[in-house]
Write a structure and sequence with these properties.
This protein is mainly α. The chain is built from twelve helices and four strands. It has helices at 37-52, 66-78, 90-101, 119-134, 140-160, 181-196, 203-215, 235-247, 256-267, 279-293, 295-311, 325-336; strands spanning 9-13, 20-24, 223-226, 229-234. The chain is globular.
């Protein structure tokens, strides 16, 4: 975290939990990054499209994934600097928060297990989004709701972790202890966001997740799809695993250099024909990795990445692709706004 960045903090009682939680709000960047006019225009058009397409219930969806899509869309809006109380998208963010809070189950799951057979994605993305808006919520009663929701969601994730230290599409008890890399990364980033917001997260949960990633690493530096399917490296999961390790503070791990080399060989050429699926998922995480490296590597990579993203935007401000427009648009907007450094989870 950049020590020059200031955070707004508030102390709030956690009720049944002893002590108080330090709630970290949205940090404001000390120095504005250079943004090309075309980038600014694409961001503005994209954010307006996201706001315009929000349902009257406060959600967005693609397929059967309203929880995941709402959390991702809300995160894209908060990356602009808007909060639940200020900015042009404050109303949209509040409505997204309201919607997600109605999806918190008694066991802490954020989502609908009856309609969503991959509910851990929505749960992880929701933890991340709610934890990022928590510190800017001025209403005391709503802060209590957010603290309770985040606390329960952390407890659910801990209980849903597999014996190997990862997570699957559903809780371990619902999925025969199956795990895979992409949902594991989603949980780790969500848990880290909650921890940054002052929500207690058991150290062993994060430590077990890091060990899971290390065990899935192959000799070429890439990460396998699952602990049960080792040997075949996946560029997308390797990029996401690196982002998760950085979120977990494992910058100095002995495994990181090999993983970085693997990603640079397979992902640095943005315009190359990919031999893998889920391009936007891949670069959503790899852009965070390169951003944290900073310097000329980031600037060169960013310029190529943004040029490609901007060139593919539709006239209405959205982007099309795998899963659906709201998913692709939210991912692209998060990537395009990394240099704004408003969200603690994406800061260097």
């Amino acid at each position: 975290m950049n020590p020059r960045l200031t955070r707004r903090t508030a102390l709030q009682s956690l009720g049944t939990l002893a002590g108080a939680a330090c709630l970290h709000g949205l940090a404001r960047p000390a120095v504005a990054a250079r943004y090309e006019p075309s980038w600014e225009e694409a961001i503005d058009k994209g954010l307006k499209w996201v706001a315009r397409t929000q349902s009257r219930l406060g959600h967005w969806t693609a397929g059967n994934y309203p929880t995941a899509m709402t959390a991702l869309a809300g995160t894209a809006l908060t990356c602009s600097g808007s909060t639940t109380v200020q900015g042009p998208y404050a109303k949209n963010i509040r409505r997204a928060v309201d919607y997600l809070l109605t999806k918190v189950r008694p066991n802490g799951l954020i989502g609908d297990p009856l309609r969503d057979n991959r509910y851990t994605y929505g749960h992880g993305f929701s933890m991340l989004f709610l934890s990022q808006v928590l510190g800017e919520e001025e209403d005391a009663e709503r802060r209590e709701e957010l603290i309770e929701a985040c606390t329960k969601s952390v407890e659910f994730s801990g209980a849903a972790q597999t014996k190997s230290g990862g997570w699957g599409y559903v809780s371990a008890k619902d999925g025969n202890d199956f795990d895979e890399g992409s949902t594991t990364i989603t949980q780790v980033q969500g848990l880290r966001g909650c921890r940054n917001a002052g929500i207690p997260v058991p150290r062993e949960v994060i430590d077990n997740a890091k060990e899971y990633i290390y065990r899935c690493k192959n000799p070429d530096g890439g990460i396998s799809y699952s602990s049960r399917n080792r040997g075949s490296s996946r560029p997308a999961i390797t990029a996401a695993a690196l982002a998760a390790l950085f979120n977990a503070g494992a910058y100095d791990s002995d495994h990181v250099p090999d993983m970085l080399d693997y990603c640079k060989k397979n992902l640095y050429r943005i315009d190359g024909a990919p031999s893998y699926g889920h391009w936007h998922y891949t670069y959503l995480y790899y852009s965070q990795v390169v951003y944290r490296q900073g310097g000329q590597d980031w600037e060169e990579f960013r310029d190529k990445l943004y040029k490609k993203i901007v060139s593919e935007q539709q006239s209405d401000g959205s982007w099309n692709g795998n899963i659906g427009p709201i998913y692709v648009t939210a991912c692209n907007l998060i990537m395009l706004q990394l240099d704004r450094s408003y969200l603690p989870i994406y800061q260097r």
